[in-house]
């Protein structure tokens, strides 16, 4: 699963996950003001213009010519599709650079927009009233990573999550992180936004290869001896020793680098009789200096050389293009970390991928039409995969909250 990074998934990326954003505002005489999702009969509908704000993919950057062309292509495609379905709605597209959750939710609350796609991580600490938005949501889908087991969770011992990490590391290790990753014939299949060889089947639309979630990764950066001690501390549920090797964590708002590993470690180290871990905040107080905000991709920085356990988005390397300036993002600098290596210890439980929250003015028929038109953008290779969205499906806030509780235990 891909986190949205600079407009791609990343966790994403809750993570810190940067999220792609679409926001929708409806104009026109038709308003479903009842607060329900009932379909208004076609003979009672008038044409409604839905304004959609879509995040500019990082690959487009700030090139105004490319942005304008992408906007036109998206708008033309969606309106042609909606017209072919005799829909009573059309769209007006605006490309934006902001993915701020506060802006999205405020716009919906003001009635200025009716749909916005946000990262799940940005909702974890938000106390959203059950009746503030539409009971329905749009769940985005992303491509399953090679080695991932669909919907696998911690279970009773977390072994399946460790096996997923091992399988993903096998794919990661085939070609050392280098310029060869970009080689058209002998690399990892870079297509402009992703290394396709790290996915089960990048171009597949089969449901078995699409997932509605993202995971985090727990990675070890150490020599052989320390690596084995860390693994042993994990398996033996020895929290004190595990933390003693230093944890590189994300910001408290991050899904994959904070919420997810925190929840996983609670399941791993806590028992009914012995609650060792209440929170990362509590852990930081108990083990001063052992929890530090540090990125996995900066493990070879001098300031991070004594940190041996890092949290990251699952397979973040799959959408991070190799550049000489990032030579040690996913490789070890032997000068800083002599005789050390990267070991994937485990992935985390799944967290729902980006979701679309809707106002109560959007009915179920309109939601379905929007989903179909968005899916068609992927079919025409215009928009979707380039921000990590490989598909979309109907869901509900209730189901979303259930999944959050299963993973986070809250």
From TrEMBL:
This is Phosphonate transport system substrate-binding protein. Keywords: Signal. It comes from the Bacteria. Pfam families: CypI. It comes from Mycoplasmopsis verecunda. Residues 1-18 form the signal peptide. The keyword Protein transport does not apply. InterPro entries: CypI, CypI_dom_I, CypI_dom_II.
């Amino acid at each position: 699963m891909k986190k949205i990074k600079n407009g791609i998934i990343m966790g994403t990326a809750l993570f810190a996950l940067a999220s792609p954003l679409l926001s929708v505002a409806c104009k026109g005489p038709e308003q479903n003001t009842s607060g329900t999702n009932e379909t208004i009969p076609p003979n009672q509908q008038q044409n409604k213009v839905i304004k959609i704000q879509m995040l500019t993919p990082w690959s487009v950057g700030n090139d105004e010519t490319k942005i304008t062309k992408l906007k036109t292509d998206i708008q033309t495609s969606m309106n042609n599709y909606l017209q072919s379905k005799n829909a009573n709605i059309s769209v007006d597209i605006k490309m934006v650079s902001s993915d701020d959750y506060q802006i999205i939710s405020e716009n919906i609350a003001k009635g200025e927009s009716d749909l916005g796609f946000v990262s799940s991580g940005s909702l974890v600490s938000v106390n959203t009233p059950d009746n503030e938005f539409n009971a329905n949501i749009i769940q985005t889908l992303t491509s399953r990573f090679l080695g991932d087991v669909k919907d696998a969770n911690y279970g009773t011992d977390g072994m399946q999550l460790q096996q997923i990490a091992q399988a993903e590391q096998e794919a990661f290790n085939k070609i050392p992180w280098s310029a060869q990753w970009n080689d058209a014939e002998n690399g990892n299949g870079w297509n402009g936004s992703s290394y396709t060889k790290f996915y089960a089947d990048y171009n597949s639309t089969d449901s078995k290869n699409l997932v509605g979630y993202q995971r985090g990764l727990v990675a070890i950066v150490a020599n052989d001896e320390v690596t084995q001690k860390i693994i042993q501390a994990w398996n033996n549920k020895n929290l004190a020793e595990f933390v003693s090797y230093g944890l590189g964590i994300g910001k408290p708002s991050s899904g994959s680098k904070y919420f997810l590993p925190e929840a996983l470690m609670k399941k791993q180290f806590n028992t009914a009789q012995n609650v060792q871990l209440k929170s990362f905040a509590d852990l930081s107080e108990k083990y001063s200096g052992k929890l530090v905000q540090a990125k996995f991709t900066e493990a070879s920085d001098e300031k991070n050389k004594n940190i041996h356990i890092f949290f990251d988005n699952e397979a973040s390397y799959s959408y991070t293009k190799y550049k000489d300036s990032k030579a040690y993002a996913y490789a070890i600098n032997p000068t800083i970390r002599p005789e050390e290596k990267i070991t994937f210890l485990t992935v985390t439980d799944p967290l729902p991928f980006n979701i679309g929250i809707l106002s109560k003015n959007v009915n179920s028929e309109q939601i379905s039409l929007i989903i179909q038109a968005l899916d068609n953008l992927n079919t025409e290779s215009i928009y979707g995969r380039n921000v990590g969205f490989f598909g979309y499906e109907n869901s509900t806030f209730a189901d979303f909250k259930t999944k959050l509780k299963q993973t986070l235990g809250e």
